[in-house]
Amino acid sequence: xxxxxxxxxxxxxxxxxxxxxxxxxxxxxxxxxxxxxxxxxxxxxxxxxxxxxxxxxxxxxxxxxxxxxxxxxxxxxxxxxxxxxxxxxxxxxxxxxxxxxxxxxxxxxxxxxxxxxxxxxxxxxxxxxxxxxxxxxxxxxxxxxxxxxxxxxxxxxxxxxxxxxxxxxxxxxxxxxxxxxxxxxxxxxxxxxxxxxxxxxxxxxxxxxxxxxxxxxxxxxxxxxxxxxxxxxxxxxxxxxxxxxxxxxxxxxxxxxxxxxxxxxx
Length: 266
Ligand SMILES: Nc1nc2c(ncn2[C@@H]2O[C@H](COP(=O)(O)OP(=O)(O)OP(=O)(O)O)[C@@H](O)[C@H]2O)c(=O)[nH]1
Ligand SMILES: [Mg+2]
Fold this sequence. Notes:
It is built from ten helices and seven strands. 39% of the residues lie in helices and 12% in strands. Helix 4 (93-103) crosses helix 5 and helix 6 crosses helix 7 (189-203). Strands 1, 2, 3, 4, 5, 6 and 7 form a seven-stranded mixed sheet that branches. It folds into two domains: 3-166, P-loop containing nucleotide triphosphate hydrolases (Rossmann fold), CATH 3.40.50.300; 170-243, Conserved Hypothetical Protein Ylqf, Chain: A, domain 2, CATH 1.10.1580.10. By secondary structure, the protein is α/β, with parallel strands linked by helices. The protein is elongated and about 65 Å long. Bound molecules: guanosine-5'-triphosphate and magnesium ion. Residues 121-122, 160 line the site of magnesium ion.
């Protein structure tokens, strides 16, 4: 799938976010790459290379939705080359600020937060900035609306950078669906099927997609007029709830070598 096709899935704010990051690139010292702990390979963006010469920190976010054992394994693996923080709903902004300060050579490092859609960038920026958000003022000369917020010895760009994963395979698209990084609607049927099979393996479910959806649809009362299951609705709700962690905690990327391959390629 080429990049244009991928872009077409995302709304206009993506282009704006990208422009804002590029316009502020020179000022940025440190970049937080937000990855999804459920799929650290899939969410490592091919656009990472924009930040070649920056200090890099990795946050494995949504770890509360991922497999606990793999969380530790991934953290240990990634820490071989990057400062890394395992993060979930409960993690405080203070722990992020401390990691940025301890891993930066600069006095007042300028920080940007980037990652693929829906991975938790805004949540992280909000946690860092917290109640200080109200005190900010926009700087002249920078795109209107983009602000640098000074807090606790670091300076944060109050605008997330939205990056893309390179969707060169259906498996990658399927994993992005599983973690909610692409909209669940209007995907190719094959992608739903592949996504279900990945889920089926990690969740150790012994049903085919059709049977599973039929049971799910019945249980949730997603029926058509005649009383038959509305498969379309069942499919949408299932993938939505799965991506929000309502079906359990799963990790879909488990190959460490692949992680270093995608990082090296960038
Ligand atoms: N369970 C869980 N949910 C999270 C976590 N971080 C963010 N979320 C949820 O994930 C969804 C997306 O979070 P955002 O912070 O808006 O993600 P984003 O990367 O800014 O998304 P875009 O701007 O659309 O690219 C929201 O519903 C958040 O509440 C986390 O650590 N754990
Ligand atoms: Mg956001």
